[in-house]
Amino acid sequence: MKKLEPAGDPGSLRFGAYHVIFESEPGWGRIFDAVLIAAILTSVLAVLLESVPEIRLRHASALVACEWFFTALFSIEYVARLACLRNPGAYVRSFFGVVDLLSVLPAYLSLVLPGGQFLTVVRILRVVRVFRVFKLARYTSEANVLLSALYASRFKISVFLVAIVSIVVVVGSLMYLVEGPEHGFTSIPSGIYWAIVTLTTVGFGDITPQTALGRTLASAVMIMGYGIIAVPTGIITAEIAASSRASSGGAQACADCGAVDGEPDARFCRRCGAPLARKEGAS
Amino acid sequence: MKKLEPAGDPGSLRFGAYHVIFESEPGWGRIFDAVLIAAILTSVLAVLLESVPEIRLRHASALVACEWFFTALFSIEYVARLACLRNPGAYVRSFFGVVDLLSVLPAYLSLVLPGGQFLTVVRILRVVRVFRVFKLARYTSEANVLLSALYASRFKISVFLVAIVSIVVVVGSLMYLVEGPEHGFTSIPSGIYWAIVTLTTVGFGDITPQTALGRTLASAVMIMGYGIIAVPTGIITAEIAASSRASSGGAQACADCGAVDGEPDARFCRRCGAPLARKEGAS
Amino acid sequence: MKKLEPAGDPGSLRFGAYHVIFESEPGWGRIFDAVLIAAILTSVLAVLLESVPEIRLRHASALVACEWFFTALFSIEYVARLACLRNPGAYVRSFFGVVDLLSVLPAYLSLVLPGGQFLTVVRILRVVRVFRVFKLARYTSEANVLLSALYASRFKISVFLVAIVSIVVVVGSLMYLVEGPEHGFTSIPSGIYWAIVTLTTVGFGDITPQTALGRTLASAVMIMGYGIIAVPTGIITAEIAASSRASSGGAQACADCGAVDGEPDARFCRRCGAPLARKEGAS
Amino acid sequence: MKKLEPAGDPGSLRFGAYHVIFESEPGWGRIFDAVLIAAILTSVLAVLLESVPEIRLRHASALVACEWFFTALFSIEYVARLACLRNPGAYVRSFFGVVDLLSVLPAYLSLVLPGGQFLTVVRILRVVRVFRVFKLARYTSEANVLLSALYASRFKISVFLVAIVSIVVVVGSLMYLVEGPEHGFTSIPSGIYWAIVTLTTVGFGDITPQTALGRTLASAVMIMGYGIIAVPTGIITAEIAASSRASSGGAQACADCGAVDGEPDARFCRRCGAPLARKEGAS
User: Fold this and answer.
1) What's the farthest any 2 CA atoms get from each other in chain D?
2) Do D122 and D224 belong together in one domain?
3) Tens digits of per-residue pLDDT, C115-160?
4) Mean pLDDT, residues C37-53
5) Which of A253, B196, C122, C279 is 20 to 30 A (C-alpha) from A276?
6) Distance between CA atoms of D67 and C278, rounded to whole angstroms?
């Protein structure tokens, strides 16, 4: 993603507005963030309430007014974001640029188009904007630990997911064969749905095995699921432990080659062999 | 919280009572604790039984007598706590002071006010008083390991919770759109409720998807929930492992600057560089 | 538990029988174990099948014959165990001695007493005898890792359990207040039962909240349960990792003072400072 | 498993075909893999759709055509695999050889035999062929970490499984005794089925305790299950962490004896004592 740059010179109004809107500095920046998040949460709450039939009937006009109020507010915010950037195009094409636009479009579209329910869900996407709060440094580093743990585990997780999908396809087919349509297993896909519900230990109970053979097979699947749930947990835990260690005080960068060593007791760079500064005088 | 201090001089009755009531020393202190916990558990059990219609009808008078017996007992205990403190005000305003007062108030209030059910729940709060048992040193240190692990993870957990809330809001809206009111998804909030029930693998089964598209989406959510449950586990496990290691024999304090090093094989203080005593003679 | 000792001199029949029955040596000892486990599992299976009404009606005489066959077999085994021990009293009072006696008693008691169902459950206890297989050295050490991890975590788990019990009591009372008897929450104990079903993510769905407030509270409990499940996992994982490391090849005992060091890279005894043999010549 | 070897000389058509079909090299090898996986997934999807009654009735001829198309394709592939191997017999007897044969047999058998549903499930086994994708080196090493973690935990998991089975047998019998047939616990096996559903936190809700004693026992089982789920997670997590560490950059092979040391800070070979190259100049 191209870096967003402020328009105007330092000291100008647009430059100042950039820092208030896009950064999260103490003072007006923090206040702007707080107001924005409050507005987002209130507008999402309004959408939620509007979907409840009783509330929609009784408070129709208030909800319409509320929706137009927030649409106006977010429209102004969107224009302000465009105005204080040197490269507004980069913002428009960025992930948050698209989300910000989708926050205001539904109200305008509802003037021309009928399909209310679909537009409602688009408006719900506003909730994603709350993630802006994570530009705060403290959260960014924590989010990075989580994301890098997930990223480092992506191959292990892929292997695991393919195994899970194969298991639920085979188990679902077997249950369809064993239980049959008369016990709710109307097709192989519904058997697969049951296998996923069971293996993930969700267990809705809308489809359940009734025959002795089906229950025995189900028991095996449940105990297997109980053991299998340990695998992703183990993968993620091992990675989080590793990346926590790396991002804590223990990690140290080599002054010569810049390689970062996550082992807190490393005394020499693992890449170039130069002594690491911190414990240089120790031996 | 201001420290509670005993009233009276060492050797006086009030000073002795302070140690019996507030400390957990062998002898009378332990006996007092055991009696108190037995009384708390019995009174909570009485409240539980009183809420069962059949028992309330049959044993009404016994339950009322029981309630007044424990109210009298806890009132005496509350007055005794006040009496043996130099600064009773600090106790009254402390967390346990409020809980202790709430333990006896409902019975007195029931003489004036009608609303029985609400007062019942207030009386249930007595169960919180059981946590006094954790003043025992062994438990305090273990509870601290757990609490410090949770505290150290608070930013990671916040990031995780915001992500979960966003996911359930978006998934709940989609399911409302896909399944609609005729399959139990009467509004977006009920869709969100379903998403939480499913993602946490609780799976009540009071609302379940019936359409092929809804079941496919539900399957994706369940497999996602299966993977996501690994994240908080990974966060907490990594922290517990770290704080266990730090509080176990492996940790060593530097004699020069007092910094504690959790790495069991550290040979030099990570803060001031002085050799650590334990393995000083080893190299 | 007093150690069991073989009766008779080495070379005698009883001495040989002791090794076959009580030890798990290659040859007759292994064969005896395999036959015993097969007999236990078959007899348990017979008890299970007997409880199914259709099977009990159709195969009544076969099941009775089966039960008496295994009772005779286990009686002979019990007498043989008594006969080849120098101290049979220690065996009779040991855990497995009691379980072995309980395996044969129900059949004899059923000749005098009527209460069939209760005796059936006593016969089910035979399944515990399968744990004898764990006298094999490989399994004993693994079971010890698990048990020592659980034992080392006992204080943390106690703290955790008291916290869970307090939470479910308070949540169960609140749900009773919010939902009331008309939605299945007929008393505080049933509210607590619902809270346990929900917090542990079991989610039967026999009692579910119907009101908006109840569902909101339930959502909070479910997300909390999702996070809380991480705590015991973290406790046990940290302990298993620690005790695995200690019992793996990395651990080394000091030749001077006998202290065992779980850190695989320890080069000096952590208690007495003497160099450890394995890497002595390395520095 | 005997190693598969290409037929023909380097440069010949059969030698080239071997590399395209059995290896996963960039170029034609990758394209072949992608086409094969697409064909497998499409044919599995066709089998799934065929099991849905509405789709089977409406698109009968298209599904038959589709099935014969993929049967032809996989038959050609099977013959091609045989043709380009020096030792086709080893392939025929290998796991994937059997699976490949089972992918094409059902269509030919359906010409002679009636039993449609059973053959359907055999065709579903095609999904297992997707695992061929894991011949890619990156996935193989990750899959090996998972498999070696599971393999290293096999004794611990056996102990755990025997304990679980004993617990569910005893708990299931008790619930049968307490609740009885009138609340759905029609036999001990159905009690055991309920115990597995509950202990694994699946919780279908098709059988639920109704009596106070049954619910109390169920609560104990659920809290126990909540704690027990931590055990396999702990086992697997500890192993994955250990084998990740061993397979990550921290591991180093001794230049003298070839032993691999997973401890990243090892400075001397743990087997022969020779200094390890990486940090040789460091001390």
Assistant:
1) 78
2) no
3) 666 777 788 888 888 877 666 556 667 777 777 877 877 877 787 8
4) 90
5) C279
6) 65
Chain B residues inside the 8 Å CB shell of D205: 204-205
Question: Considering its fold, how many domains does chain A have in total?
Answer: 2
What is d(CA B38, CA C227) in angstroms, rounded to the nearest whole number? 31
**Residue A227's domain spans which residues?**
142-248
Interface test with A, best of D44, D48, D198 (most A CBs within 10 A): D48
Distance from CA of C170 to the nearest CA of A (A): 25
Whether residue A222 sits in one domain with residue A118: no
Is C215's pLDDT higher than 90?
Answer: yes
Contact check, Cβ <8 Å, C270/B281: no
All residues of chain D having their beta carbon less than 8 Å from the beta carbon of residue C244 are 238-239, 242
| Assigned domain for D272 exists | no
Question: Same domain, yes or no, for A26 and A114?
Answer: yes
Residue C189 near chain D (CB below 8 Å): yes
- pLDDT, residue B11, reads 76
Mean pLDDT, 10 residues at a time, over chain B (283 residues)? 72 81 78 88 90 89 90 92 87 87 86 73 83 66 75 79 88 91 91 93 91 93 80 79 60 44 45 45 33
Q: Which of A249-263, C126-140, C233-247 shows the lowest per-residue confidence on average (mean pLDDT)? A: A249-263
Residue C3 and residue C18: Cα distance in Å, rounded?
13
Q: Is C187 on the interface with A (CB under 8 A)?
A: no
Q: Is residue B222 part of a domain?
A: yes
Question: C68 in contact with A at a CB cutoff of 8 Å?
Answer: no
Distance CA C29, CA C178 (A): 63
Confidence of residue D58 (pLDDT cuts 50, 70, 90): very high
How far are the Cα atoms of A45, B209, C267, D185 from residue A48, in angstroms, in the given order? 5, 20, 63, 42
The DSSP element (H or E) to which C266 belongs, if any, is none
**Partner residues linked to A261 by β-bridges:** A252
* Residue in B211, B235, B237 to test binding to D, most D beta-carbons within 10 Å: B237
ipTM value for the complex: 0.80
Tens digit of pLDDT for each residue in D173-213?
999 999 988 998 999 999 999 999 999 889 999 999 999 99
User: D169 touching C, CB under 8 A?
Assistant: yes
Check if B205 contacts C (Cβ < 8 Å).
yes
Of residues B51, B125, B157, nearest to C176 (C-beta): B51
SS3 D250: coil
CA angle D152, D158, D162 (to 5 degrees): 165
Q: In whole numbers, what is the pLDDT of chain D averaged over residues?
A: 79
C147-158 pLDDT, tens digit per residue, is 787 787 787 778
Asked whether residue D4 is assigned to any structural domain, the reply reads no
pLDDT of residue B125: 85
What CATH number does residue C183 fall under? 1.10.287.70
Contacts of C among chains (3+ CB pairs under 8 A): A, B, D
b/e string for A196-215 if b means 16 or more Cβ within 10 A? bbbbbbbbbbbbbbeeeebb
Q: Note whether D195 and D172 are within 8 A (CB).
A: yes
Tell me, yes or no, whether C149 and C234 share the same domain: yes
Whether residue B281 and residue C267 make contact (CB cut-off 8 A), yes or no, is no
